[in-house]
Amino acid sequence: MMYPVEYQIAAAFLVDFLAGDPRFLPHPVRAIGWLAAATERILRSIRCLHLRIAGVMAVIIVVGGTVALAYAFLLLCGFLHPLLQFTAGILILYFSIASRDLADHAYAVLRPLAVNDIGQARRSVSMIVGRDTSSLDEQGIAQAAVESVAENTVDGVTAPLFYALLFGPVGALAYKAVNTLDSSFGYKNERYLEFGWASARFDDLVNFLPSRLTVPCIAAAAALMRLRYRDVLPSVLSTAGKHTSPNAGYPEAAFAGALGVRFGGPRSYGGVVTDLPYLGIAENRPNIDSIKQAVVLMLLSSGVFLVTGVFLRLVVQAAMLYLM
């Protein structure tokens, strides 16, 4: 008996919401990271290989290897029993979604802020952002946390759901492989400018549609929460394109509009101050309440994305059956 992938995705989403990401469990993303690092060492050891070509090969090896292993694993489980294959698919999808983990990290910042423990709040927020946090005040910490939730709504939740709806568990894990490669190699520094070029460009490509499709889901969730849903689209249209990333500006500008706050502005990276363009059409800076609202908005937006995606998938399947 074949089980619809919609059941697997819904079950994985629920399990992630309830269980999160326990640190004691082996995580396939860590294995993908290990594979990426090993592949880099091997390819860099080939002296005659141009770094950009080596980077393209790294993408093919890591993403292709992830797809092949995930597919073989599901085939093996299916050979043993269909129910085992169904459960294995849920497990792969569960590891590909990170809504609860994203919420937990945000609340790890919120809790010390609520009792005015700025030192602990700075340490907690440093775990989820790349900027210098040692001199951030309360509003700076809150802004860093909310921006992280907004940006990672796509990377951690809606993009894996998008590829799961299209290609099942293997598609979701393939996306995580691309995302892990970008996290590993997608830096514009001397070491990775050439080697990481393919990883960064491929990540931009696979996030193009999910980042934009997430915007109306954020607006719908904001309406359900009675936030500033009418400001979501104007905020995105007027400021999303200012972001240095071709995709990250969309969820961030949407969150800024919904929450009535402004993202961007000056921040320090490695002691060097960078003045980033502002996102959002309001002038307010995020605060403690913004963190709470951002977490709920992320979870609700993800739920709207999932329900809408499942509905559209069922409509397409029904239309195909009718035409046949």
Automatic annotation (TrEMBL):
GO molecular function terms attached to this record: ABC-type vitamin B12 transporter activity; threonine-phosphate decarboxylase activity
Organism: Prosthecochloris aestuarii (strain DSM 271 / SK 413)
Localization annotation: Cell membrane
InterPro entries in the cross-refs: Cobalamin_biosynth_CobD/CbiB (IPR004485)
Function: Converts cobyric acid to cobinamide by the addition of aminopropanol on the F carboxylic group.
HAMAP family: CobD_CbiB
Xref: PANTHER family: COBALAMIN BIOSYNTHESIS PROTEIN CBIB (PTHR34308)
Keywords of the record: Cell membrane, Cobalamin biosynthesis, Membrane, Transmembrane, Transmembrane helix
Assigned protein family: Belongs to the CobD/CbiB family.
GO cellular component terms given for this protein: plasma membrane
Predominant place of localization: membrane
Protein name: Cobalamin biosynthesis protein CobD
Superkingdom: Bacteria
Membrane spanning stretches: 51-73, 79-97, 294-316
Pathway(s) it belongs to: Cofactor biosynthesis; adenosylcobalamin biosynthesis
A biological process term (GO) from this entry: cobalamin biosynthetic process
Membrane topology qualifier: Multi-pass membrane protein
